[in-house]
Write a structure and sequence with these properties.
Layout lengths: L5 H31 L8 E4 H18 L3 E6 L6 E4 L1 H17 L5 E11 L3 E10 L23 H5 L5 H11 L5 E5 L3 E12 L27 E5 L3 H13 L3 E5 L2 H10 L4 E5 L7 H10 L3 H5 L2 E5 L4 H9 L4 E4 L4 H16 L2
Parallel strand pairs: 2-4, 8-9, 8-10, 10-11, 11-12
Antiparallel strand pairs: 1-3, 3-7, 4-5, 5-7, 6-7
Helix pairs in contact: 1-5, 2-3, 3-5, 7-8
Length: 353
């Protein structure tokens, strides 16, 4: 409906809410029945844990940002990249738990920790832990929340929506995978949901090119960068045209600053996920601009990734870039898939440590 009146808008929003709620309920019930009737079959395929975490990050960092929450994924570096198992079901459990964590948290942070707990001959024991600083769960409700259609408080549906099926499904799925779901929580302080999964070792060290697009990014398809906010400091009109075209396609939110001083001004008044910095610009060059950004007393500006855009790749330039507080170099002219891969990696690494 174009240009709806205020009360029509309210009705439309209510309708949208109920249809989304209904769809969620139907999907949950279908899943629940499948598990309960034993007709669920687990797949066993090679999968990249990095790929799953990357996907989870791209969905939830936007949701968390909307609520001003800090969302971090911390992955144990000793974990291998590849495993064998049902990655969809693993992702479903994690997604459900993070969704709840964000839903029931108004202030603070939500964290996903993935740790190697043990190594067996043909499998790894991996611990997944989702922690939030939200409303918490009363002691006497802790066991009940795993029952189907159960919510901790009677006003939960009205306040937060949901069906009361999510946790029951997670628990059943985990039981199906030979595991269990644990909860530790303090009212008003937050909750911690955790589970261990025994994931089989894979013969592969990474995904083949045709198995997942991130290795051969088809930048027309991926929406990894959707909603990410980037500042591009660049004065060359042609470069601006090219970079704009791709950033739009990848649904990145971006600002362009056509000289160093404008870039500094924008960095002072906005919060970006990263900055792309041309080195030769009028008014103030990229080196001085980066240094000036680092020296502002805004905490974000001390850590925000700043990547130089340059045609030269020599060792001298790399040293100078470091000296002036930049994190790395993206070479010009732009190769879209290379640019995409580099941006994804930078943004992803910022959150997965
Ligand atoms: P819902 O669809 O209501 O989220 P769930 O089965 O996922 O259903 O959760 C059941 C109930 O457990 C929720 O209604 C809420 O009361 C409580 N709960 C789940 N996760 C959290 C959390 N992270 N923090 C606080 N309460 C939670």
């Amino acid at each position: 409906m174009e240009d709806p009146k205020k009360e029509q808008l309210e009705n439309l929003n209510a309708l949208k809410y109920s249809s989304e709620h209904l769809l969620g309920l139907v999907n949950d019930i279908l899943d629940f029945n499948k598990i309960a009737s034993g007709s669920l079959e687990l797949e066993e395929r090679d999968f990249s844990l990095e790929h799953i975490l990357n996907g989870i990050h791209s969905i939830f960092h936007i949701k968390a940002k909307e609520k001003n929450l800090k969302f971090t994924i911390k992955k144990d570096h000793s974990l291998p990249e590849m495993f064998k198992g049902d990655s969809t079901r693993v992702a479903q459990v994690i997604t459900n738990l993070i969704n709840n964590a964000i839903k029931f948290t108004e202030k603070g942070r939500v964290t996903l920790d993935v740790d190697l707990a043990d190594e067996m001959q043909d499998a790894y024991l991996v611990e997944f832990k989702i922690t939030d600083t939200g409303i918490g769960i009363p002691k006497n409700k802790k066991d009940k929340i795993f029952n189907s259609f159960a919510q901790a408080n009677s006003d939960t549906t009205r306040k937060y929506g949901g069906t009361g099926l999510g946790l029951a499904i997670c628990k059943k799925l985990l039981e199906f995978m030979g595991s269990d779901l644990f909860v530790d929580s303090k009212v008003g302080k937050g909750s911690e949901f955790s589970f261990f999964l025994s994931l089989k070792k894979s013969d592969k060290t990474s995904l083949q090119n045709n198995e997942y697009e991130i290795d051969t990014p088809d930048c027309n398809k991926l929406d990894n960068l959707k909603g990410v906010k980037i500042l591009v400091a660049e004065d060359n009109k042609l470069n601006i045209l090219v970079i704009k075209k791709f950033l739009k396609k990848w649904q990145v939110n971006f600002d362009i600053a056509e000289n160093g001083l404008l870039a500094l001004d924008k960095a002072l008044t906005n919060s970006y996920d990263m900055i792309l910095m041309d080195l030769q610009m009028p008014v103030m060059n990229g080196f001085d601009t980066s240094m000036a950004i680092r020296e502002t007393n805004i905490p974000l500006n001390k850590v925000i990734p700043i990547y130089a855009l340059s045609a030269s790749t020599g060792i001298d330039i790399k040293h100078k870039i470091e000296e002036f507080g930049m994190n790395g170099l993206i070479t010009k002219p732009f190769n879209p898939s290379e640019l995409y891969r580099t941006l994804s990696k930078i943004i992803f690494n910022k959150h997965v440590s």
